[in-house]
Amino acid sequence: MSSLVENISDTARWVAIFRAEESERPDAVFHDPFARKLAGKKGEQIANAIGFGRDNSWSFIARTFLFDEFVMRHVLEGYDMVLNLAAGLDARPYRMDLPSSLQWVEVDLPGIIEEKEKVLNNEAPRCNLIRIKSDLADQKARIELFKKLNSKAEKILAARVREVHSRPPGGTRSMPPSWWPPPTARRGRPPGPPTACRPSRS
């Protein structure tokens, strides 16, 4: 299995398989028609090799569902930018019913962004999608990016791996200091698991 997972981007392929399998269920809680293509053959190989992932795939499905709900709630509240940090192979700008005026900014390493662009080349996002190639481990570049984006929107929702942060208009940012200055603000969290997320399946 270790030979299959060569870098962090391979984990995005792995998780995409679970989104694909959920989307193909008759009782799916979300539909991602791009997931299987994004995962590719390697994503399926990794998923088959990691038994833990198969046994606990419901947790990946629940996380995807909850983030979908969380994003839509904030969009309906008037947030005009979603900043998806380490976006991986996320296809929300293509599969969710988002307003065309919404700015959706994806930031990730050049390799994973270029791969996603090739796969989705003939697809049209439903909102104003911007992709930025950047190494988020570079603190200086990261802070400069956030300063630049800060002037582009009134209300920003930022997601980083398992964390979601919101910046209301005129308010401070909720990112930790190393992620988004200044350091203080209200921190948004996803709601508790809804009944639609099934913890076990036959």
What's the topology here?
Blueprint: H1 8-23, H2 35-49, H3 51-55, H4 57-76, E1 81-85, H5 92-95, E2 103-108, H6 110-119, E3 128-133, H7 139-150, E4 156-160, E5 163-167
Parallel strand pairs: 1-2, 1-4, 2-3
Antiparallel strand pairs: 4-5
Task: Give an overview of the whole structure.
The protein is α/β, with parallel strands linked by helices and 202 residues long. It has two domains: 8-59, no CATH class; 66-167, Rossmann fold (3-Layer(aba) Sandwich), CATH 3.40.50.150. 41% of the residues lie in helices and 13% in strands. The protein has a five-stranded mixed sheet. Helix 1 crosses helix 2 and helix 1 (8-23) crosses helix 4. The protein starts with 7 loop residues before the first helix and ends in a 35-residue tail after the last strand.
Question: Outline of this structure?
Answer:
The chain is of the alpha/beta class. It has seven helices and five strands; from the N terminus they run ααααβαβαβαββ.
Would you state the CATH class of the largest domain?
Alpha Beta
Distance between the termini: 26 Å
Q: What share of the residues lie within helices?
A: 40-55%
Largest sheet: 5 strands, mixed
**Strand order across the largest sheet:** 3-2-1-4-5
What is CATH's topology name of the largest domain?
A: Rossmann fold
The domain tally reads 2
Strand portion, in percent? 5-15%
Indicate the overall shape: globular
Task: Please state the average pLDDT score.
Answer: 80
- Helical segment count: 7
CATH homologous superfamily (4th level) name of the largest domain? Vaccinia Virus protein VP39
Strand/helix succession = HHHHEHEHEHEE
Give me the Rg, rounded: 17 Å
Report the strand count.
Answer: 5
The CATH architecture designation of the largest domain is: 3-Layer(aba) Sandwich
Q: What structural category do the secondary elements indicate?
A: alpha/beta
